[in-house]
Amino acid sequence: MVWDEVKQCLVLSDAVCLVTGGAAGVGAALVSSLLTENAQHVAFLDIEEKKGAALETQLNAKFGALRAKFIKCDIANEDELTRAYKLVTDKYRRLDVVVNNAAVLSRDGENSGRMVDVNFKASVNSTFKAVEAMSAENGGSGGVVVNISSLLALNQDSRLAVYSATKAAVLQFTVTLGKEPFYTNSKVRLLTVCPGPTDTAIYHRQNLQNHPAHLTQPYFQKQSVESAVLGIIEVIKTGASGSVWKVADDEPAQDISQHVKKGFTVFSSVVKK
Ligand SMILES: NC(=O)c1ccc[n+]([C@@H]2O[C@H](COP(=O)([O-])OP(=O)(O)OC[C@H]3O[C@@H](n4cnc5c(N)ncnc54)[C@H](O)[C@@H]3O)[C@@H](O)[C@H]2O)c1
Ligand SMILES: CCCCC[C@H](O)/C=C/[C@H]1C=CC(=O)[C@@H]1CCCCCCC(=O)O
């Protein structure tokens, strides 16, 4: 039976969660919010060792010993990612929620390979590892994987062509893999979230405002980190596998799956007879 027919709403209490890029920005606020929702354990992966360790200490003091677990991990390094997954599944014996949130952003022409490796390749690798651990087809109890894309996946802003392409790839991958019968077979929901501009370090990165095109294209209005996290939590609880959600403008999460479907119907009309 598909998720929409069951009209379920996931209860996060006692869940074991894993968040990539959890030492700062949206990821850090999400780790804290999952613990507020009574998740049993939240493991978070990041390259920022000092920030990650400090957040772990702070969260365990607030929510109880061992509830938060920082794992230093460059998600673009497959061996490190494999080790992190093994550590989590060996330690907690289950995995219910994974949010692939870590990403990097640079101007076009700078660090293109790193953007592809972190934003796209690592999200793909992490998704397959999560599904392997959760899938009912492997004896698991199902779960949810959220891949964080961007509204730039749906737009053509000439200032951030490579970053936008990595986010479009994340969206296409997640929607395509997550379509039925994926949930029916695995009991895992694969979800895409497209945040709008949000007040974190990535938003303020690289003096992008000095890019020549910024004079001709409107500057983005940013939402709060709290709004972004509220939206992601709502999507984790209610989203059907293969669905896509807009989380922007300090507004509740909006299911934009039909817009995306319409777009791909237009694209594929040139492929199909
Ligand atoms: N802030 C925005 O305006 C905005 C808008 C749309 C989408 N997003 C997306 O939201 C997500 C969260 O971004 P944010 O705004 O919190 O950015 P951020 O830069 O504040 O946080 C990103 C975190 O990811 C970590 N990270 C980067 N590379 C890593 C790697 N190789 N391995 C492990 N951790 C790594 C960073 O150390 C950092 O802690 C990203 O996927 C981003 O693309 C952000
Ligand atoms: C010269 C370039 C100015 C850049 C402004 C800002 O630093 C960038 C914000 C982006 C950061 C991560 C995103 O996904 C953010 C983009 C969110 C998507 C907004 C799409 C809305 C639109 O394209 O109108």
Automatic annotation (TrEMBL):
GO terms of molecular function: 15-hydroxyicosatetraenoate dehydrogenase activity; 15-hydroxyprostaglandin dehydrogenase (NAD+) activity
Entries under InterPro entries matching the protein: NAD(P)-bd_dom_sf (IPR036291), Sc_DH/Rdtase_CS (IPR020904), SDR_fam (IPR002347)
Catalytic activity line of the entry: resolvin D2 + NAD(+) = 16-oxoresolvin D2 + NADH + H(+); 14-hydroxy-(4Z,7Z,10Z,12E,16Z,19Z)-docosahexaenoate + NAD(+) = 14-oxo-(4Z,7Z,10Z,12E,16Z,19Z)-docosahexaenoate + NADH + H(+); resolvin D1 + NAD(+) = 8-oxoresolvin D1 + NADH + H(+); lipoxin A4 + NAD(+) = 15-oxo-(5S,6R)-dihydroxy-(7E,9E,11Z,13E)-eicosatetraenoate + NADH + H(+)
Keyword vocabulary terms for this entry: Oxidoreductase
Short name of one Pfam family: adh_short
Catalytic activity, EC: 1.1.1.141, 1.1.1.232
Gene Ontology CC entries for this record: cytoplasm
Highest taxon above the source species: Eukaryota
Task performed by this protein: Catalyzes the NAD-dependent dehydrogenation (oxidation) of a broad array of hydroxylated polyunsaturated fatty acids (mainly eicosanoids and docosanoids, including prostaglandins, lipoxins and resolvins), yielding their corresponding keto (oxo) metabolites. Decreases the levels of the pro-proliferative prostaglandins such as prostaglandin E2 (whose activity is increased in cancer because of an increase in the expression of cyclooxygenase 2) and generates oxo-fatty acid products that can profoundly influence cell function by abrogating pro-inflammatory cytokine expression.
Family, per entry: Belongs to the short-chain dehydrogenases/reductases (SDR) family.
Protein name: 15-hydroxyprostaglandin dehydrogenase [NAD(+)]
